[in-house]
Amino acid sequence: MSAVGSSTQRVDGNAKVSGAAQYTADIEMPGMLHAKALRSPHPHARLVRIDASRAAALPGVLAVVTRDDLEGLNPYYGAVVEDQPVLALDRVRCVGDIVAAVAAEEREIAEEAVELMEAEYEPLPAVFDVVEAAQAGAPIIHEERFETQAAIFREQLNLNAGGNVCSVFRAGDGDVDAGFAEADQVFENTYRMPPVQHGHIEPHVATAVWESPNRLLVHTPCQNPVGLQEQLARIFNLPESGVRVVVPFVGGGYGGKTHARLEPVAALLARKSGRPVQWVLTREEVFLTGRRYGGFVKMKTGFKRDGRLVAREVEVFYDLGAYALSGPANAKTGSYVASGPYRVPNRRLTTYAVYTNLPPAGPYRGVGVPHVAWAYESEMDRIARHLGMDPVELRLKNLVQEGDIFVTGEPLVSVGISDCLRQVASDIGWRGRVEQEDGAREGSLRRGKGLAVIMKSTTTPTASAASVRLNGDGSVMLLTSSTEMGQGVRTCLAQIVAEPLGIPVERVTVSAPDTDVTPYDKSTSSSRTTFHMGNAALRAAEDVREQLLEVGAQALEVDKADLELGVDGVRVKGVPDRGLTVPQLLKAKYGDSVGSIFGSCNFQVKGGLDPRTGKGKAAAFWFFSACGAEVEVDVETGKVRVVNVATSVDVGKAINPLQCWLQNEGSMLEALGAAFFEEMVFEQGQPVNGSLLEYMLPSMEDHPERFRSLLVETPHPDGPFGAKGAGEAVIPAVVPAIGNAIANALGGVNITELPLRPDRIVAALAEREAGAPGEDKP
Amino acid sequence: MSAVGSSTQRVDGNAKVSGAAQYTADIEMPGMLHAKALRSPHPHARLVRIDASRAAALPGVLAVVTRDDLEGLNPYYGAVVEDQPVLALDRVRCVGDIVAAVAAEEREIAEEAVELMEAEYEPLPAVFDVVEAAQAGAPIIHEERFETQAAIFREQLNLNAGGNVCSVFRAGDGDVDAGFAEADQVFENTYRMPPVQHGHIEPHVATAVWESPNRLLVHTPCQNPVGLQEQLARIFNLPESGVRVVVPFVGGGYGGKTHARLEPVAALLARKSGRPVQWVLTREEVFLTGRRYGGFVKMKTGFKRDGRLVAREVEVFYDLGAYALSGPANAKTGSYVASGPYRVPNRRLTTYAVYTNLPPAGPYRGVGVPHVAWAYESEMDRIARHLGMDPVELRLKNLVQEGDIFVTGEPLVSVGISDCLRQVASDIGWRGRVEQEDGAREGSLRRGKGLAVIMKSTTTPTASAASVRLNGDGSVMLLTSSTEMGQGVRTCLAQIVAEPLGIPVERVTVSAPDTDVTPYDKSTSSSRTTFHMGNAALRAAEDVREQLLEVGAQALEVDKADLELGVDGVRVKGVPDRGLTVPQLLKAKYGDSVGSIFGSCNFQVKGGLDPRTGKGKAAAFWFFSACGAEVEVDVETGKVRVVNVATSVDVGKAINPLQCWLQNEGSMLEALGAAFFEEMVFEQGQPVNGSLLEYMLPSMEDHPERFRSLLVETPHPDGPFGAKGAGEAVIPAVVPAIGNAIANALGGVNITELPLRPDRIVAALAEREAGAPGEDKP
């Protein structure tokens, strides 16, 4: 192989660094208006009255939209649950909920118009804590859904979940009560993760224009253009082909651009004004628009003296905020791995996706897994400490293995997790049990190392379609709706297409998504693209390859097997002079040396879980990763310095090793933010640190002194060239590895809430001194 | 059939009338520069020196390009002959030749910078008349090509064509000398047609940006995006995939936007400046950029007393101007129909494409045919008058018939020309021979009717590829590189795709060309799109249809033949309840109710003519049309009023009758301009009326009082639903029909030069009074 496996330069890199790349906000159209929204100042209120007449009368204002403009449309949308109104109808459910919007000739006029709008509210009781929100008696946020949903829970799960629980998913094995009874020891702890920001440099932005009353064109940096197309079509009662979603260059996504966010309102304004409308959110609005679910995890673990886990019960509460988006699906993704990548014969794993009166959350790299990984990997180190075992040994004793039947009932394949763990342990110089006992000391500084492993599914069942076109000069075009958002998908897919055709990567062009021209894809999320779209692209390219070989074999009167493909066309193996160029092949096929040869593939992985049993097929592939970290903690200030981080991912096959490295390094740095300082703070539903002035994101200053990205390649039998996904594989393992390193540096402390702020570390040390319940207290 | 054959509303109409349609000049990009060219003031000169240093130093100027910037590139380009430099190298060949260009932050700065450029020329002898230019001894315009080309003529045609003859094409039958000897009478005349403007509302315009050193993106209203892509790739030494040509909405083309015009220079400026560059030509520059070939026709006809044509010799000279573009191909198109749609046993037909020192010409609706049609249909009426025959009868006696072997050696199929003639004659109330003898009189006004018929080939061999994608909601996308330039191709193709799938036209979206995503097409020209791309689209849709039927048959356990397709999916014929929706079919095919189903087709018509013999296959299909006109001439002023025009085209099958009407009406009105007042006037190569102030285009004021568009439907066995092309079918017939109507109104006058200006009519009448050689003088 020449294209696949090499660290090819990014195909989109030059455009980005030279400034030639055009982002959505760069688009200008004649007559284009600028949008601005009136947003709710209340976390929960009845919307009594809106008066937009003064705004509408302001010179330069071309359109004002309120709930009255939703007449005749489908006012609610949502990826899983249609619970989000395009504009507030009878009530607002969070601070920042869009109540009305305006489109004006200048941004400043739009802002002024919003100031002129009057909205009257009648405040309602609100609930912000995810566990509280899930209790009976909490203020109900989506009254209209409550009864139906409760009935489903009763029927499917025999469960009296109520209030604001949007979805429940349950997986399990064995007999949990018997398991706990059999255990030598039972640990029970709770863990908490705050909501955090995606922190994509480019804010949410969209440009909408109606080409006709039945034809909407939207430019937006969306990770899920086909899904957005479907939702917009449904809102506006159009066929899918009546909506065209075009994705320009994207300035980062991390899951935050997976769903419709501001596009429905932009489209509504464009429709009313008859003009193109562009809407660029301010950073403050981004904070009110999306984030990672906050989470609360209750974990009870029973284990034997030899370290074997025998029972585990986990309950996880994901805070959706005001609207579900893909919350139920993401919570499900967290459920079946809530007991970790471990063999646990008896387990009951339940996840709840719960509405609160906070701004809506949504998928974020790793979706439901970071929450549970933070819990189960902290627990593993506590158990190891309690048993006096090497945490590596404890993990290896319990880790899932190739061929194991997982809690979902499916056999696991391509399971490189033990290798991942061994790799990072070796790389950070893990020296066994002593590490956790004896943090190196120097003044107030303590050093320690920590480890963590995780597993994650990819969203299944899903489909990805690709089509490949061979041009007359032998260059190739791949049509795909996969979004390049920095992760390198265009480069990776170009490599996958180049390989079977025997051409250099530079001869392959990979489209940006444009629902008019690029085919179906479920979405660019869940680290699924290399596997799913990679398979579709590979098979489409192989389709072209077969056609070339067939024509070549016929024209050259040789067996297909005797031919090979290369940059110049086909040639007879071992006879360099005997071959046909692409124009000659076209001539042989079509009678003229011009034209296109097409290949296509709709790649589908069947699967899915029965909601009653939690059994089925959860993942087209599973990915596994490990992280090892070394930190230095100042016991006086609680400040932590990250000395060394190593990550290892079982990627199946690295299509582009450099890109894997970069994905892992990006994940690692992003996770350090969540580990140490990222948290969105709300007071009574009002954002406290809702801008980049107050909210801290990691920068290169926070980069560890040393970082290594290690790869394990356990080829997946169904992956393109054996590849699996890698994008988000590292992120859930980093935070618990850091937490475990800190605990080891300090000889065991009990911090169960993120981020690992200096004040929390100092407080945990003080607690331990005071003999308060701390480390090793089950 | 429900979609095909109905006058569906234009799918792009709404965007155009509402202003939502985005044209190339509407594009704005951050940092976008504006271009302006320094153009040659000389028709022919050696370029001694260029000094652009003062221009380059002007604040706001980001790039200046001259011949020095072509180093390392392929400096010459051209569709048929690579004779046109991106920027003048050693010499300029016409007024308006691009010598240098500048890109600046504002249009005004670019204009000022051009003023600061200095170019020194050494004038060379120039030649402007096409016949003079073809003679030995004329100043040679492309010296480097002269010897090679002359050798080819000698070898292939045994012909001593020299000087500026770029190409010669010869077709023939029988023994011409024997034919003339056998004739009872021989007529010999010459005809002349001036160059005219295409008159597209939108000027030539392009926006170019380099996304990387190996990746050029050009937006341009081009009729031939793939061809332009190929040319740009060649100029800049890139693979085809290194150039992306995107075609926004187009404000008219008529052939004038078929070839690279300003795109190479725009791309060069963008490369040098590292910025997006937009170039919008002024109307004055459009006049220097493209036009229809002027032509000179020598026609000698031998006929029998009963009206049978027995011999014809035709020589045609097409004035290319300074560069060939597709001139040689267009001149060939004129050659084999130079004796008209008539059976002529002995004929020798020769066309010359000749360089002159006028600005370059290029294809224009009807390409080489209007020139010869003006000649042969004028001759037919003269012969009829001479013989005292009804011109309709004379034509019907000689017209080609179904199955005739044409001069190219191929059998003619789908030949509805006699029906076309009868239709228009009947529609304008043609009453036989008397019409030509006795123009109705009223004071100085004389009424008369006239008729003409024509035939034309479509460019062959060529290929068109299309791909069709079925979405999950049953809507369908057609990917095609066909350019919608007002002719209605998107609507027509949507109808063709909708038909086999049994869905309404509104469910089909048709792409605009984007070479990144839309497949190969030869070009949108030569009225070839309905036939070629229509076939490709139809077969791609049938491919999808077959897949749906196969899946449906399997899932429903019935025979494919028992199923029918409709908007909801497939159903068993006669059993409305038994069927599967598209999502159900997708589920049956792929396991999930989402995804895409693909169909594709590369449609190719083989053919071509042997340049030595003129024999082979000239056309995938031939189209035929007729025009009848009634005029009123004021014999005192020479002013003509068009009372009535009827046109008839054999379209094979009208996919959209209303669009056929509109094409024909547009052609008719365009032809009235050429008939009465359009002519580009040059004095020593300098434009005299080179703007829309001085040059007149027809307006609705010039519309005849009555117009009828008649259609004949002689299904073509290879056409989609029997359809052929219609776009330019009418245009060559209108001018001779008008000319014949004027001659009939006046009882016979001899006007052989276009346009039919009042002064020419008055002069011709005076000539006849004076007994000068006039009508009926062979």
Task: Outline the structure in words.
The structure is a homodimer of 778-residue chains. With 778 residues, chain A is an alpha+beta fold. Chain A has 20 helices and 33 strands. In chain A, the strands form 9 sheets. Chain A has a 7-stranded mixed beta sheet, with helices on both faces. The first copy, chain A, has a 5-stranded mixed beta sheet with strand order 9-17-16-15-10, with helices on both faces. Chain A has a 5-stranded mixed beta sheet with strand order 18-19-29-30-33, sandwiched between helices. Chain A is globular and about 85 Å long. The model of chain A is unreliable at 774-778 (pLDDT under 50). At the A-B interface, helix 1, strand 11, strand 20, strand 21 and strand 26 of A face helix 1, strand 11, strand 20, strand 21 and strand 26 of B.
How much is the radius of gyration of chain A in Å? Answer: 27 Å
Largest interface: A-B, 68 and 68 residues
The largest sheet of chain A has its strands arranged as 3-7-1-14-11-12-13
Structural class of chain A: alpha+beta
Task: Report the strand count of chain A.
Answer: 33
Average pLDDT metric of chain A: 94
Largest sheet of chain A: 7 strands, mixed
Runs of chain A in which pLDDT lies below 50 for 5 or more consecutive residues are: 774-778
- Percent of residues in helices of chain A comes to 25-40%
Beta-strand content bin of chain A = 25-35%
